[in-house]
Amino acid sequence: MSRIAVIGAGFAGLTAATSLNDAGHTVTVFEARDRVGGRVWSEEIQTFDGPRVIERGAEFVLDAYTEMQRLAEENGLSLVETGMSYYVREPGDVPFTAADIVETGKAAGAVVAKVGPSATAEDVLQQLDADPQLVDTLRARIEISTAVGADEVTAGALTQVASFEPKKSWRVGGGNQSLPKALAAQLDGAIRMNTPVTRVESRDGGGATVTTADGREDFDAVVVAVPFSVLRDRSVIEMPTTAERERALDGVIQGHAVKLHAPLERAPETSAVMSVAGRYWTWTAVDASGDVAPVLNSFMGSHKAIDAAGVAHDPSSWLSAVRELRPDLAIGDPAIATVWSRDPYAQGAYTAHASSLTDADTAALEAPIGDVHFAGEYADPNYTGLMEGAIRSGQRAAQRVLESIELTSEVAK
Ligand code: FAD
Question: Measured from the CB, is residue 30 less than 6 Å from ligand 1?
């Protein structure tokens, strides 16, 4: 039985921790906050129809989230269809329809297949033979969903988060955070809350040391599952690294997003309407009650848009713009804004991969340094930035730890 530390109780850390715990090892999870879930954070908002759950962080369980669906099932949680599609948004401030975006998106998809993996999404947009305002509508859709500029992100994003197929989307009934809470319950007291880790060191003779305000502690292996920007902020946490790892990390882009929620004063229909000029979208969706929740949800993506609207410090102008975009909704008070860039243990929303990132670089993001292993949404090649990516990355980290423990005990025999 080995002693293993996991840093961070988000999806990546909790998936790794429960897998290692199930394999019979002694796991200690260090979590900086007073709650588990990280960027999955469900809370209640009061409406005329009683309290409803809002997702202040990750919201949509998307198509092909096989691992997240399996984990939810194993933990007795059900996924609730939202009744609208994350992928299809009606533009509210330009003279086009969602169908026009889908059509142009398909044309862009055909270009992606031709230009290859080193192209950016903007390279693809530049090759489209379409009305410039329609191309900008598509650009807005990409920038909102990836939370970075179209000139930064790989063209591959067009086939994942910024896909345009009218596929279904879901949320975990009762709130997405129910799943990290259920995983944490399996760990039975092994999580140290309110305990930020300030340093992780790889020991020459094997194993690793974790430093917190309580002191230094030795483990046989450590899984570091903190967000990308926290990982790179030495004023928060010091970490072993290599030149290869730093080069790979340079190809990861931090995306930024702000969410806005407000109660509605009457029951709405399901909807998904985006603002091209403001780089945000708004939606109303079915929740666990089976009805459309009387809640306005809105998401603004990319640093550029957030800075332009000044919402990080004062979301009131955004709220006014939303009221104008959505005269069909009776938007009440109070509105709640969640600014992820200002959260010291997130420092952003989620990441995207730059077109310069090679397959070898992506592999280097998870390559262990001695007995220090790495996991997180930023490291997953296929579901980068997403809950599914964090879960898959956490599973792989646990697998690597188990393989290295097996190898060490083989050598010791
Ligand atoms: P996190 O969830 O961030 O977990 C990392 C943990 O490490 C946190 O609990 C943090 O407190 C802790 N930590 C940080 N520093 C330290 C330290 N020094 N010591 C100890 N602990 C530390 N994904 C989707 O699939 N669908 C969506 O619709 C979606 N929408 C999103 C909307 C927003 C606004 C945001 C912010 C994210 C969204 N995501 C979405 C992305 C999703 O939330 C993430 O991909 C996923 O939750 C990341 O999991 P993680 O375990 O990698 O990181």
Answer: yes
